[in-house]
Structure formats: structure tokens, C-alpha cells
Design goal:
With about 90 residues, the protein is an all-alpha fold. The protein has a domain of about 60 residues. About 95% of the residues lie in helices and about 0% in strands. It is built from 2 helices and no strands. α1 packs antiparallel against α2. The radius of gyration is 21 Å and the shape is rod-shaped.
Length: about 90
């Protein structure tokens, strides 16, 4: 096998490993943000329900719905990334 072919294979394996590691890092960071949004939105809903503040409760409920949608989109994005690897 020519030397350039061997080097190209090593480079592609190394870049593939780095790419997978970076993608995993991005997934973990976005998961942390998604979980934080879900936690904050749930806390806002509970807080406004506890204090019986209906005006703020509507905002908290809307924020909770949007956070849940973000979480579902994250799951779909992760699944889409996994499908690309196959």
C-alpha cells in the first residue's frame, strides 16, 4: 500500500474520533441547558401555583410548554445524528 494511503486512513480515523468526541460534547452541553430550562420552568409553575398568582402562572405554563418542546426537539436532533452515523 502506498504511504500516502496509509497516512490518509490514519488521518480520517483520527478526525472521525475527534468529530465524535466534539459531537458528544455538544450533545452533553445542550442537554444541560435543556434540563436547566425544564427544571426552571417546572419550578416557576409550582411557585406560581403555590402563591396563586394567575397572571404569572400563564407565563410559567407557557415557559414550561416551550421547554418541553425544546426537550423533544433535542431528543429528535440526537436521534437524527445517530441515524447519520449508521
Amino acid at each position: 500500500m502506498p504511504q500516502s494511503t496509509v497516512q490518509a486512513r490514519r488521518h480520517s480515523r483520527t478526525s472521525g474520533t475527534v468529530r465524535r468526541a466534539l459531537r458528544g460534547f455538544v450533545l452533553v452541553v445542550t442537554l444541560i441547558f435543556v434540563l436547566a430550562a425544564l427544571l426552571i420552568s417546572a419550578a416557576l409553575v409550582v411557585y406560581t401555583a403555590w402563591l396563586h398568582k394567575l397572571q404569572e402562572g400563564a407565563f410559567a405554563l407557557l415557559f414550561a410548554v416551550l421547554s418541553a418542546q425544546i426537550a423533544m426537539n433535542w431528543i429528535l436532533w440526537r436521534d437524527d445524528e445517530d441515524d447519520l452515523d449508521d
